[in-house]
Amino acid sequence: MPVTMNGVPKSPPRDELGEVRDLIAQRDKQRIKKENAEQAAKLANMKPTIDDDTEDDATGEARARLKAESKLKHEKEEEERKQFAEKFFERVHAAKTVTDDWMDEEAAAVARGRMAAESKARKDQVAAEIRRENAEMKKRLSQVKALTDDDLMDEKAGMARAGMAAESVGRRKAAAEKLDAENDKYKSRIKNTKSRTDDDVMDEEAGAVRGKMAAESKARKAKEAKQLAKENDKYEEMIENTHSKTDDGDGIQF
């Protein structure tokens, strides 16, 4: 029992209050668990149902009315388009093609004719002028005579050329005379020269060297001949002392 003081109940001890709270929490937990299980069972056994019939409410009625009105409107517009197309093609088929190629009564045609006439007159005038100039040129060319100016003596260039030619002739003549004089001089010297052949070279240094080299070559050749003869004698002696041997197949030579 809770302790009272002056007739007023006091709060239960801390331990009893905790036990009460735990008990309440446990009961709530069990209740929630039970309710969740029942709800899960209901959801598992529930079949899906979609209410697609809106004709039983105001929205469905309005939607049906608008749909019918839209259908009538489209049918009316389609009929009007068909009638317009039929009338249009009737007018097209009934129309005749007309090409207006007569423009002489218009301002543009009148101006075009005037400009064409002016252009033709201007071209004819230019052509006539060209023919006249060509005729004059042919006449002048037929009366022209060919003339070649080959006389340069009346010009500075011709006078200078003549002076240079005269100087060149003078130089060539002087050179020829000098060459003839030198040739005559050389001919005279050759004619007065006696022929002499010096075939004795022993009195010169080259002759002495040549004689020395000839003597050395002769001595070397004699020495080589002597050595060769000695070797030949030795080989001949070896050949004379050599006996022939015969092998008849048994490995014994005799």
Automatic annotation (TrEMBL):
<feature type="compositionally biased region" description="Basic and acidic residues">
    <location>
        <begin position="60"/>
        <end position="80"/>
    </location>
</feature>
<feature type="compositionally biased region" description="Basic and acidic residues">
    <location>
        <begin position="213"/>
        <end position="248"/>
    </location>
</feature>
<feature type="region of interest" description="Disordered">
    <location>
        <begin position="38"/>
        <end position="80"/>
    </location>
</feature>
<feature type="coiled-coil region">
    <location>
        <begin position="116"/>
        <end position="147"/>
    </location>
</feature>
<keyword id="KW-0175">Coiled coil</keyword>
<feature type="region of interest" description="Disordered">
    <location>
        <begin position="186"/>
        <end position="254"/>
    </location>
</feature>
<protein>
    <submittedName>
        <fullName>Uncharacterized protein</fullName>
    </submittedName>
</protein>
